[in-house]
Sequence to fold (870 residues):
Amino acid sequence: MCTGSPSSNDSQSEEANATTEQQQQPEQEATEQPIRTPTHAIVAAAKAEEILAEYGSNLKLLECNSQVSELLTIIRDKNTTRSDFKFYADRLIRLVIEESLNQLPYTDCDVETPTGAIYEGLKYRSGNCGVSIIRSGEAMEQGLRDCCRSIRIGKILVESDANTHEARVVYARFPDDIGSRQVLLMYPIMSTGNTVLQAVNVLREHGVPEKCIILSNLFCTPVAARTVVNAFPQLKILTSELHPVAPNHFGQKYFGTD
Amino acid sequence: MSSITFLCSKSNGNNNHSDVQRGKPASAFTSASASVAVAAAAASGLLTIAVQPQQQSKVKAAAAVAKTNGHIDDRSDVTEPLYVDPYADLGNGNIGGGDILFCCPASPTTVPTKTALESPMRRAGRRQRTTSIGNQTTTANPSECIIRANNRTIYTAGRPPWYNCAGQQVEPFVIGICGGSASGKTTVAEKIIESLDVPWVTLLSMDCFYKILNEKQHEQALINEYNFDHPDAFDIELLIDVLTKLKEGRKVEVPVYNFVTHGRETHTKTMYGANVIIFEGILTFHSPEVLRLLDMKIFVDTDPDIRLARRLKRDISQRGRDLRGVLKQYLNMVKPSYANYIAPTMAHADIIVPRGGENKVAIHLIVQHVHTQLQLRGFKLRETLANSYKDQPMPHSLHLLDPTPQIKGLHTFIRCRNTSRDEFIFYSKRLIRLVIEYALSLFPFKMTTVETPQGVLYEGKRMASRKICGVSILRAGETMEQAVCDVCKDIRIGKILIQTNLKTGEPELYYLRLPKDIKDYKVILMDATVATGAAAMMAIRVLLDHDVPEDNIILASLLMAEIGVHSIAYAFPKVKIVTSALDPEINSKFYVIPGIGNFGDRYFGTEPSDDY
Fold:
């Protein structure tokens, strides 16, 4: 579906680096002319091959069909109304959650159908839980609830210091036996990855092995992806888009506090 | 004059009584306009039927007038929805005209049923009938699926396939009935419909095709000097167009002629789907093009004296005209026209029926012939479908969802016979959501650039057209509606009811209600399971008949059998087929193996106690 020539890939990544730098200096960026970023499709094409090589097999992208592209476009559009924003964000969250659940372990299971025939199916192991990072991670809780009705959900509050930009955990509440569960960590926007690093650290302190954590994410920057993958190579990450500019307004627009 | 009473069996007598009583107070205020209404109604030729005691007819007409004069509201909450006034929308009231949906009557007759379909009780009646089919009672007793009029019966069993297994149309059988004014053409048509016992008959009257009169002609008409019996009074081109389309099985808009203004009403009558079309009028055989469209030509030959007597009686008592005017019109126009244009066309007739509707032998012969013809055209669709296309590669139009562990896991839940209904509904909803999301991604998208709050431009995609509508195949397809509404804001939903006739094993069309301009929409057609594909093919055929382009249709389903996919792809190669799982076989009862069982029954909790 997504195509791109090798030569265009090179230019893409250069451009990507350029925009990343600007993104780290938000004050400057605001005054500048809007920059034409590479199309989503081409970015994805570049990444699809690169991801394995660069980030390893534990970073997965949601299959980028036109419908997903449309959802991303609507969420990023600054002219989208709040009601539309929430509606389409919820749709995208649902897709990401469904895909994240695919990463959970399962066993084979044959069942008899009403027609008397045997269907060779599979069964998920019980003992999963969700953990959302306050506040934007909570936007994804409903999506998880819609898929797993009675799943336990823990919460982590991570605050970043206004001066040093250092993230630190100020609150965490988990099910008692979280150490023995598969954990679905929910956080929609990653621009630096620092918040997620802190959250994963807390989970590990509570005895959750790195390989049992699945990070569900909507928008991820290459920088953040690199940071997280370097720090936790066994962590599974699922995102819908790797793009140098993260839509940082997500939480504010979703909850209406902008 | 009689009104058509729509109801699913038996209790019609009572309803009419109550109706008459309700009409009475209103009758006081317009006896003059009552007769106008009668004239309009009668002459427009929608359904003018047997003569009844005059008193009652006047009262009824008054009721109709009352309605069109704004007395609609008090009727709408009355729990008497069974009475449908066929004339209600002849007046200016235009009940239901603002409705964005239109409906094609499931009943083949041309009775306008807008109001009827709004009423809850009527729906309940239908629903019951549907259920009873599931319980194998209805087909055993054909009288269950009858709609009764005051003095006639219309059969509204489901419509069997009207296309072959390549999805192509089989032409309906067209009967033309010609005869002089007041010769009993309509009565003959009624009798044929009654004794034919065939579903989906459309009655089309030539009166709908009178030309629009200009002011001068209008004045002439008022003093009985406009010749309504001359061939030039009819819009033959429009007639040919409508008849040709009907014969092709397409949806048509038939004009409604107003005999007071001598113009066409702004609204039209939608006709769709007939196995037999009966076309009646005084000059039915006049145009050679029309003659070519007729499969059987009947001339009703009634003695001129009797015709004049009937005409006098009808025009004076029901249309409020005077003896002198009627006679003048008869002698100057009706009689010469009959001699010049109508009588000579008798030569084209296959059958000449003397004495009109009372001629039982003639009617019997006609009905027998039609039956033979219909049998020659009919076929067993489902079996043909089930036995073809073995061991062929899957078609390109099939889009199967990635068999991820989640999808397999969901299938495990909903396929297991021991899953509780609560879980069945929950997990099938999740699966449906995934199917619909996937189906949406198959529509055309265009590139677009948007500005982001971060100050950079973002190149993404938007759907090329926002005009999407969902059409569900009742009953199991209904379960997918919620998911479509969840992913598309304010989406329009159409419905098609197709049930399997348990006697023949064939699918039959019972009911359909689609967005008005559906041809401009991309359509997601939904059915939970597809076995032979017979029902889905029927639904696609319906959409095509409503001028939806084939490549605008996506058929979305949870589970399909390979044969079904082959059949649909063969008949309609441009229709995209989306499903979350593909099963290899179907059993002798046309259930998919291993399958889900009867999805609708399990979802709605209507499983029969004895299992498969």
